Amino acid sequence: MEPRSSGLQRLVREVAKFGTVGVAGIFVNLGVFNLVRNASHLQVVRASIIATVVAIAFNYIGFRYWTYRDREKSGRTKELTLFLFFSAIGLVIENGVLYLATYGFGWDSSLQSNVSKFVGIGVATLFRFWSYRTWVFRVQPAQEAESILAAESQKPRTGSEPKTQRVP
């Protein structure tokens, strides 16, 4: 297996895990949104912000302890600060779509609000995936080198490779 395809496989696994946590987070987000909206008299966007904050907390736990559990863990304060910063930008994106739909287009029925919120979550998710993997849960250079070396050691020998001597 070439390191390039190994990197692609790692990315596919990462996207799948991110997606799994994200889908669960969507259910949390929409569930809390509908619960708050129906159980209180809060305006749609305020109910949505509460739901988004709950989903952000849920997602951090899923990302840190499952999706990105193999990533650097030494700078938790910095990691959490960056996570919250980028999550806040995602919150603005997500709820900005809902705000525009509700107050800009007058789409404020329950179905329209849920569809608008879902679209906002989708747009914000693209930003979050990029920012989390680029800035928050970064691969450390040593981890990247170990991954490449592990892939190289598992590569089957064909006999046509030049022989190299190992230095102790």
Structural class: mainly alpha
Overall radius of gyration = 21 Å
Q: List the secondary-structure elements in sequence, H or E.
A: HHHHH
How would a textbook summarize the main sheet? Answer: none
Portion in beta strands? under 5%
Helical segment count: 5
Mean pLDDT figure: 85
Low confidence ranges: none
Distance between the termini: 26 Å
Which outline best applies?
A: elongated
Number of strands: 0
Secondary structure: helix percent: over 70%
Structure in words:
With 168 residues, the chain is an all-alpha fold. It has five helices and no strands. Helix 1 packs antiparallel against helix 2, helix 2 (44-67) runs antiparallel to helix 3 (76-104) and helix 3 (76-104) packs antiparallel against helix 4 (110-136). The longest helix has 37 residues, at 3-39. The radius of gyration is 21 Å and the shape is elongated. It starts with a helix and ends in a 15-residue tail after the last helix.
Write the layout of secondary structure elements.
Elements: H1 3-39, H2 44-67, H3 76-104, H4 110-136, H5 141-153
Helix pairs in contact: 1-2, 1-4, 2-3, 3-4
Short summary:
The protein has 168 residues and is mainly alpha-helical.
